[in-house]
Amino acid sequence: MDPVVVIHQQGRQSLRLVLSEPIVVGRDCEGLLLADPQVSRRHLELRPQDGQVLCTDLGSTNGTFIDGDRLTEPAQIDARALLTLGDTTIRVDQQAFASSPGDAGRATTVSLVDGVDLRATSIDLVADQVASTGWQPRSDAGETVTILFSDIELSTERASALGDDRWFELLDHHNQVFRQEVARAGGREIKNRGDGFMLTFPSVRRALGFAVVVQRRLTAEEAADPDSIVRVRMGMHTGEAISDSSGDLFGWHVIKAARVANLASGGQIMVSSIVKEIASSNHDVRFGAGTEVELKGLDDTHLVFEVLWDS
């Protein structure tokens, strides 16, 4: 079970973080960024360990304190301990763990994408987990599958502005909409982490139909209640399900689908060129002009297209 930590700064909404992997905390780092002048650029590392959290100070200038005592060596903290760095406090939420996809939706997930694009966090987190576990779809050799990734744009900022109760309500509704439409489209939920989904569909047509319906539902709800605004980024790619015993080729397709999704802004659906080619006979779907891009971790350049779902 992944521990959950609560980060609090005076005058701001608390942030709840599912700690599924080690993360560096600081003012200017590849990790969780804190707007606190008393915090060093790379202040400390939090590492999940047996349901608790191992805290290591990274040579910070002003120090890290556990219940008022300066941290001089790595130490485990639990719900009884209060971690302080500058004007920021961190504690372990003993009552909340991300032990299943449903539980993960009960916390705002923050992680890292080279310390730059926080929008990409949930998508990359899901993709990395799926790729590292060697997941392969339940299908016969030679069959193709369409992979879709999504997350909520600026989810961390939205959670902070709305507060936990309202944010959890919106997140639960977002997850319900996704799962309802996945079932209708005959898709499969592979992984859900916080506000991010990885889904697969047996055809491009079903995947596109799902994505368009979800975007239209969320937009209609936003028009009826502006406070319910949730802007979702989506991206998809189609590839052969199984290539060899190692699953390397399929892992490549997972990463490409995630990278395409990371190009989207809130309310956008981005697709790879092969998705567009397969869907070209479907005159119900329109695409924008193609854009040639580089995708992190993949060779060469790639052509991607936006789905014009609102036209």
Highlighted features:
elongated; seven-stranded mixed β-sheet; 311 residues; 7 helices; alpha+beta; six-stranded antiparallel β-sheet; single chain
Describe the SSE topology.
Blueprint: E1 2-9, E2 15-18, E3 23-26, E4 32-33, E5 44-49, E6 52-57, E7 65-66, E8 69-70, E9 75-77, E10 83-85, E11 88-98, H1 101-104, H2 121-132, E12 144-152, H3 155-162, H4 164-185, E13 188-193, E14 196-201, H5 204-224, E15 232-240, H6 248-262, E16 269-272, H7 273-278, E17 291-294, E18 301-306
Parallel strand pairs: 3-4, 15-16
Antiparallel strand pairs: 1-2, 1-11, 3-5, 5-6, 6-9, 7-8, 7-10, 10-11, 12-14, 12-15, 13-14, 16-18, 17-18
Largest sheet: 7 strands, mixed
General shape: elongated
Mean pLDDT: 79
Question: Structural class of the secondary elements?
Answer: alpha+beta
Our measurement of the CA-to-CA distance between the termini, rounded to an integer number of angstroms, reads 44 Å
Cα radius of gyration in angstroms: 20 Å
Number of strands: 18
| H/E element order | EEEEEEEEEEEHHEHHEEHEHEHEE
Task: Give the low-pLDDT segments.
Answer: 96-120, 242-249
Total count of helical runs of at least 4 residues: 7
Strand order of the largest sheet: 13-14-12-15-16-18-17
Query: What is the percentage of strand-forming residues?
Result: 25-35%
Helix percentage: 25-40%
Protein model, in words:
The chain starts with a strand and ends in a 5-residue tail after the last strand. The longest helix has 22 residues. Helix 3 crosses helix 4. By secondary structure, the chain is an alpha+beta fold. It contains 7 helices and 18 strands. About 11% of the residues have low confidence. It has a 7-stranded mixed sheet with strand order 13-14-12-15-16-18-17, sandwiched between helices. The chain has a 6-stranded antiparallel sheet with strand order 2-1-11-10-7-8. It has a 5-stranded mixed sheet with strand order 4-3-5-6-9, with no helix packed on it.
